[in-house]
Amino acid sequence: MVASGADRLTILDDIHLAMQAGESLAILGASGSGKSTLLGLLAGLDLPSAGRVLLDGTDLAGLDEDGRARLRSRLLGFVFQSFQLLPAFTALENVLLPLELAGRPGAADAARAMLERVGLGRRLGHTPSQLSGGEQQRVALARAFVMAPRILMADEPTGNLDAATGAGVIDLLFELNAEHGTTLLLVTHDPALARRCGRSVELSAGRLAAGRVAP
Q1: Average pLDDT of the chain to the nearest whole number
Q2: What's the chain look like in SS3?
Q3: Please, which pLDDT band fits residue 14 given cuts at 50, 70 and 90?
Q4: Per-residue confidence (pLDDT) for residue 12, from 0 to 100
Q5: Which among 185, 176, 140, 183 is positioned nearest to 161, based on CA atoms?
Q6: pLDDT in tens, 138-176
């Protein structure tokens, strides 16, 4: 990918990457290595200046912005470091919103059941400011998995959490992923976390530095 302007800046270069359905893949790398940029390209939030990105066999460059958004809503779930919850909405409303936007029947029951599953059945009416960081990330997990995505993209999901809280969130993420049979793409700087995935690759200065099967 190349940024526009007088000086052309290569952010990612010579990236060849494929995932199979049901696989878990970690993308490792230091801050500034291009991990989040790569995730944005794979999700169709940005388009590469060269090369192709295929999502479920669809070339993202062949879709307009609305078409890519529809494909994301059908296939993808997201979990972010910063939670990305709507601050004025309760936990229940945050999980309910994507279901209602998609016109899913039984949305309220599904949202409540998923919040129960992540251990927040007694926190349905609390807004993000009334929840701890770990609880907010559990709401974010519930919001992602309630849509039954085929692919979950998680960008440094424990980056804003302390070690103990983060470990609990990651355990829950992998439990939910196994239950739903979701393909998992996990961006992290933590090698120990990456080893929980079936495979990992490492980015260094925008290039694929190494690939290995995690033990």
Answers
A1: 90
A2: CEECCCCCEECCCCCCCCCCCCCEEEEECCCCCCHHHHHHHHCCCCCCCCCCCEECCEEHHHCCHHHHHHHHHHHEEEEECCCCCCCCCCHHHHHHHHHHHCCCCCHHHHHHHHHHHCCCCCCCCCCHHHCCHHHHHHHHHHHHHCCCCCEEEEECCCCCCCHHHHHHHHHHHHHHHHHHCCEEEEEECCHHHHCCCCEEEEEECCEEEEEEECC
A3: confident
A4: 87
A5: 140
A6: 999 999 999 999 999 999 999 889 999 999 999 999 999
**CB-facing half-sphere around the CA of 83: CA atoms within 13 A:** 22
- pLDDT above 50 (res 213): no
pLDDT reported for residue 7: 60
Assigned token pair, 134 = 């770990």
Identity (one letter) of the amino acid at 110? A
> What gap in Å lies between CA 212 and CA 42, rounded to an integer?
20
Tell me which residue of 80, 108, 76 sits closest to 92, measured CA to CA: 108
Q: Tell me the residue type at 144.
A: A
